[in-house]
Predict the structure.
Amino acid sequence: MSFLSPLFLLGAAAIAGPIIFHLIRRATRNKVQFSATQFLSASPPRLQKRSTLQHPWLLLLRCLIIALLAFGFSRPFFIKDIPILPANSKLQHTVILLDESASMRRSGQWDAAKIQLLNWVEETGIDHHLSILGVSDTVTRIVSNELWEKTPPFERQPLLRSLLEDREPGWGATYMDQGLNAALDELEQLAETTGQSAIKTIRIFSDFTSGTRLTGIAGRDWPNDCVVEFEPTQGGETRNVGLQWLGWSKVGDGPKKARLSLITSGENQTVTIKAVDSITGQNIGEPQTMYSQVGDKRLFLFDIPDSNTNPFTIQVEGDFESFDNTLYVAPENIREASLPYLGSQAVDDPKSARFYIERAVTGWEDIKISVTTAEGSWEDNTDTLLLIHETPNQVAAGKIKAFLSNGGTALLLFTEPAQLKFIEALTGESGWQTPKLNRSYGLFGTIDFQHPVFKIFADPRYNNFTNVRFWQPQALQPPADSESRILAQFDEGPAAIVELKVDSGSLIVWGGDWTPQASQWVLSSKFVPWFQQLIELSLGGPAQPTMTFVTDPDRLTSTAEAKWTPLGSMVSSEESPTSPGLYQLAQDNNSHWVALNAPHDESRIDPLPWDTWEKLGVPIEAGKLIVPEELSEKQAAAKNAIELEGEQKLWRWLLIATALILAMESLLSITISRRGAVPAEA
Amino acid sequence: MPFAPSQAGIDPQALLAIRDLEMRARVVVEGLWSGLHRSPLQGFSVEFTEYRQYSPGDDLRYLDWRVLARTDRVYIKKFEDETNLSCHIILDTSRSMLFGSLEYTKADYARTLAATLAYFLLHQRDMVGLSLFDSEIRDYLPPRWRPGHLRLLLSKLEREPEGRATNVGKALEEVALLNTKRSLILLISDFLSPPADWEVQLGHLVAMRHDVRAVQILDPAELSLEFGTAAQWEDMETGNKLYIDPQVARKEYLEKFSTHQAQVKKSLDERGVYLLTASTDTPLDFVLLDMVQQSGIARNMVRTNLRRSR
């Protein structure tokens, strides 16, 4: 038998205490009351003779308690020749997470990770129940447990080598939280498959950069017997400068500027930033020399002349790591809309509706809008939204119908009952009426917030329309079998806004005039957003961005039939691209440049602080963070002793024995004290 | 001892097992009376009369007209009034009286004795008063004879002692102030305090022509220290603690205690106060008999004894 903490055995010397106390007469604890102590003198306390120890059984128990405690604290264990290590005795379920994010593209990282993984498998993991997952922004299975089990042990390493040989890291971000969750599921599955208890390990082969996402595992309940081990890739460059795209910036009439941020890792650097036209290969603007500082988020603006309409790249020169030195930029997809106005109201009369329509669209950047007076000669079918503010004559009605049939959108301000005929002619439905309202003014009662034009007001914070009054409302009453859709109703019941479908186009009929004398609508804060939604509707929906991360190309597409053509290639594909670059995206009879970039978090290659794992409650076994060194003989012996002691846990039994003896001691001392409490004999 | 040890008395343990104090007193007194009948102390009974010269302010009802007619001198005839004995019992109720190595305490014994005496005296139409004291007089009942007085007196005696320290001197001083009329004063205490604390006041009482008698109640353990084990001994009055091994301390204790007893006896003797020391294992009727014999409070010997004591 040996002891882990033999110094505690010295505590057994405390046995002397109870022996001495038992030698001293305990009479001092008894109390006798007497009436005439003035005639008494104090007697000196006396020691009993050695042969007359008081309550020897009690003493024995007390000594035993102290001895057992000292013995227990010294952590005894039985020495065995071959320490039984958990690794040899139990099944091992291991899930390996191999980082395949963009940061692994750094020079040497990927090869190092592959070699480390292969070495580990050869040395340790060959007998494990194993499965290997690749982690970037998605989790992919590299080796399934099924395949692993099926393969004979001597073929496993060659199999893995061949599987990894052609494998390349992707361009995605490092969503390690996603990987860990998948690994835990995998471990559960392994446990179900084998049906035996095993040591569960998740081993991560990664560069562990600070751009790694871990937030998804905060608060996760970890299985008790699961351990996460780390295998950081060795070597590689630690200095890097990357670029983050923040958007376009334009102040007044000045030139357009690209807003960018420099991400610096490792140490401060001086780099040159230049923009290169991807089609002509010429520099755009002047290259800038920047001093980038670690820890600072360096923001800067890069002038891009308005004349540039080609896609381009912004490049970092002078950096030690090149995998993130190019940022692809596609020009903005600016749409244009023309709004012909069919009516007689003047542009500059504040009492006219036209006046407010002009002002509502002034200054829009993302859609360039022009409002024109169409009059009788209007016949352009490429227009976006037709505004009808009069009763059209027959010629005009025909043109309007043709426009709508081609998929156009029109707004009719229904100001006089004569327009009912025009509506009936358009829809082919008879029986449209305009009922009179009884109250002095109308209010919107019910609004269809599902419709695109009203959708932005669906939030309860914005859906109060009661401060918009209509003094000259023109209510509508569609026939019972009408296919029209009522978008809003007056509070008295009849429809206020109706959408009519004419072939593929739609006509929105507004019951009443928009002049300030007729209603408060154009003066209300809801008018401009509503009108913008109407124009967006007529343009086929909101604008699609032209730039995004390579991990999320679908953000740029509005239909499933989009086609991607890489810059400089003639071959287009319906498959979403997987690498960063510039692409010609064709969808909805429209084609424009888009840019895909690697997630900027991957440029942050500073090492992830190790305490992050502990803070998130990841079960890390002590000492696993450091690559274990060769243990000296003495250290190995100490380690074995710790493991043996931890396995045998004799101290637990000693503590139980102590508790039992303590209970016996209490009983005995209670009995003795009760016996002693009998009135003193005279 | 003033009583014959061969006489069979009432076992104090059995007597004190009776809860009712009046019953206890009756048991003792009735036994005593039967004893008195057989007693050779039975004697004559004479009405005492006294003539004294009239002084202004005297009640004219007691003027002896015959003497006036005969001698032409104004005399007052006094009788009956002084024939009734006025007895005042002063009982120590300090904490030290709560000591008892037997099944009862000195206080139990003392109050039974006081109750017995009161019962005896009241039954022969004598007036009995009562003072309970510890550091001072806690309860006072003037000497009376009237129906219900016994019950009142017994109810006072029933009270458990509360005080701690004993101050016999102060109690006697207060009794002297309250009892101006000459009377028999019975002081029942354990007299464990030094005589110097109370002898002056006692002398004062004697000087007031009170007939003072002392009964010292002691526990057998106090007399022999055949009691207890080696332990912390706590003084019942002061709360002082001492480690005492009775085996070791006995010899010295007995020496000191006998010295104290001698001092008490001497002090009382010097003032003409009769001391009766009673151990609590002594039958009560013996003590009562001794009291009666020594103080002459039995009706048929009142005169003799009073006269003798003066």
Q: What stands out?
A: Residues 1-7, 35-48, 299-310 of chain B have pLDDT under 50 and may be disordered. Strands of chain B lie at 49-53, 75-79, 86-92, 127-133, 137-144, 184-189, 211-218, 231-235, 241-244, 274-279. The first helix of chain B runs from residue 12 to 16. Residues 25 and 119 of chain B are 6 Å apart (CA to CA).
